[in-house]
Amino acid sequence: MASNLHMLIIPLMCPGHLIPMVDMAKLIAQQSVTVTIVITPRNAERYGSVLDRAIASGLPVHILQLRFPTTENGLPNECESVDDLPTFSLSKNFFDACAMLQKPLEDVFNELKPRPSCIISDKHLSWTADVAKKFQLPWVIFDGMSCFTQLATHNLCVSKVQEHVAESEPFVLPGLPDKITMTKSQLPGLFNSGNSARGKELKSIREQVRATELGAYGIIINSFEELEKRYIDEYRKIKQGRVWCIGPFSNSNKNDLDKAQRGSNKSINNHYCIKWLDSQHKSSVIYACLGSLTRLTPLQFIELALGLEDSKIPFILVVKGGSRTEEIEKWLAEEGFEDRVKGRGILVRGWAPQVLILSHPAVGAFLTHCGWNSTIEGICAGLPMITWPQFAEQFYNERLAVQVAGTGVEVGAKRVIHLEDEDGVGIQVKREDVCNAATRVMSEGPEAETRREKAKYFKEMAEKALEEGGSSQLNLRLFIQDIMLHTNKGGIAG
Length: 494
Ligand code: UDP
Prior knowledge:
It comes from Artemisia annua (Sweet wormwood). Keywords: Glycosyltransferase, Transferase. It is a single chain. The chain is α/β, with parallel strands linked by helices. About 45% of the residues lie in helices and about 15% in strands. The strands form three sheets. The chain has a seven-stranded parallel sheet with strand order 3-2-1-4-5-8-9, with helices on both faces. α12 runs parallel beside α18. The mean pLDDT is about 95. Uridine-5'-diphosphate binds near residues 292 and 351.
């Protein structure tokens, strides 16, 4: 259908951004469109197994590797992904290193065959807008977030209501289809950057990203019409229709190995936690994972672990301590925690094969930090969720899960914990909060049953969206047609 089209995909090298863009690359290639994904050597290795299988299956997927300038930017030698940063205070160095990819990319651009018809880039890589301009291509952005988030962000930027409220004063987000109440301290960094020097530095980067993204040709969203239709419709009006919801991306992984290796080539589909899940009753286990970047303080981790233990519900808890690993391990050992919960709970250290775990019949609920990927993966798995937002736009995603989809129960987090805020904020959520939310979600009462039914409904809708004739399949074709028309007309933007 579109065999002369070629899309150049430039992801931000951070799991929550790169994982969905790899899925997206495969979805686009399945429509006979050539895609080239630009990544660095270590990421090519990390995501290579999944990409190699896609290529071996005959999909027109290419990988363009560019060396990542780590040492020039004060980063450790092999640090090529945000989750490899020894400290998030190096975030700006990481973005500076990304910007240095512009020249090497421009140098090889003319070797790309057929000539690319558009660039789809993570919106946080503002320099890619210059590349698109230089080569006269439409610049399509992706930022891994929902239309709820896009609409809420747009409305706050326009209305500026958040500038007139106190930090913890609840206010209604303007112009949304539902009445959604939040506090300023729950808003993402663009509106709530914290008081640290690093926070202020990142605020200016975010403002620059925002200013640049407004000039994008269009936006691709990892969502589907049936999940947030009223939000999508409103956002489309603002963007002259160029909003293409073509997800949920995670559902594009059909076989267990692709599910297991999504985000890490080291992961395996007979991981010990899958074997353990095989021994558990249907829908009995809570899977608790706070994404790829969150590093709980030891005190907060202890509350989470004890809350799960108190609930007496079987669980898998993913531990990502980063620089706090030693302290967390010391507590686990001194407490004899793993022995105490033996048979009923297990810990996974490092990378968990999340999508594989979520699709296991023994899992009955997902305790999540509400990163958008995790949120939509939970929705695709048909699971009720215990929501514990941490940073960025995760409180919006909590509202979407709890209020809009009706499949989530809040654990009770009150404010954003900025990643760059290395000292964290002690304890936000207590063990009894975790235990209560877990018990509520897993109960057999009518409220929990309704939640489970809604979750099941969205799982079915998510599956249909990507099938032949489904809403996302249709949107993907509309996107391809738009780029094809644009290319044939020989235009560049808008
Ligand atoms: N993920 C995973 N295993 C882990 C941690 C994360 O597979 O141990 C995946 C998860 O499935 C999701 C992504 O990493 O696709 C995390 O993205 P999300 O937007 O949920 O959160 P972030 O990591 O960006 O905070």
